[in-house]
């Protein structure tokens, strides 16, 4: 609740209150960083590497209560509150605004065991792609370029049953089953380290 109050206060301080909400999509930057590149302080993801179709699907998930409604998922409740306050034209405006930003890949972080992570990632690549580039047909977002701390947090959310448990969230349920294939938090760190190393390899090419 305290973080939600701070978020609302930030929206007002940036001049992005209800009366200007529809006129300016920059409200996304309040939490997601000056260029929507992500914000580690509140674990807000990098939006610039996520495609429009995925962003739209996730906003719908928040609006429908598939994400952020779990009693223990305080982390996502703030975004759910913001999403539920958005009308269709607000969503369109936000998506157009983010699409117009220059993609900014996250800095590679490889604290886990990359070799083990490579092996664990084999079960992920059928949906997310060999280079973690994502696959719209499979409704799987790109993972490359995303922050390691965000990927870790989401995998742990799936494993803990905080995400992907709503009966209507078929894609979330599928991802939860895949995440449960990671038997420990160390496995999570290892697979995330491998994904992050893909980012690093691309940067060095």
TrEMBL record:
UniProt keyword Electron transport, yes or no: yes
Database matches in Pfam families: Cytochrom_C
Protein name: C-type cytochrome
Record domain Cytochrome c: where: 12-102, 112-199
Segments crossing the lipid bilayer: none
This protein's record includes keyword Metal-binding: yes
Keyword tags: Electron transport, Heme, Iron, Metal-binding, Signal, Transport
Organism: Rheinheimera marina
Signal peptide boundaries: 1-17
InterPro entries: Cyt_c-like_dom, Cyt_c-like_dom_sf, Cytochrome_c_Oxidase_Subunit
Taxonomic placement: Bacteria, Pseudomonadati, Pseudomonadota, Gammaproteobacteria, Chromatiales
């Amino acid at each position: 609740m305290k973080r939600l109050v701070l978020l609302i206060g930030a929206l007002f301080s940036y001049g992005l209150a209800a009366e200007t909400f529809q006129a300016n999509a920059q409200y996304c930057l309040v939490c997601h960083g000056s260029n929507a590149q992500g914000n580690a302080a509140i674990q807000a993801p990098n939006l610039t590497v996520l495609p429009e179709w995925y962003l739209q699907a996730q906003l719908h998930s928040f609006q429908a209560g598939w994400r952020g409604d779990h009693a223990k998922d305080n982390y996502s409740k703030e975004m759910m509150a913001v999403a539920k306050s958005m009308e269709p034209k607000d969503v369109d405006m936000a998506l157009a605004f983010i699409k117009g930003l220059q993609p900014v890949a996250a800095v590679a972080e490889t604290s886990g065991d990359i070799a083990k992570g490579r092996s664990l990632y084999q079960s992920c690549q059928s949906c997310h792609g060999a280079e973690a580039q994502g696959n719209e047909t499979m409704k799987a977002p790109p993972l490359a370029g995303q922050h390691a701390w965000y990927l870790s947090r989401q995998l742990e959310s799936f494993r803990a049953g905080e995400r992907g448990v709503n009966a209507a969230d078929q894609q979330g349920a599928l991802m939860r089953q895949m995440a449960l294939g990671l038997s420990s938090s160390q496995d999570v760190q290892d697979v995330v380290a491998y994904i992050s190393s893909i980012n690093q390899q691309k940067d060095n090419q």
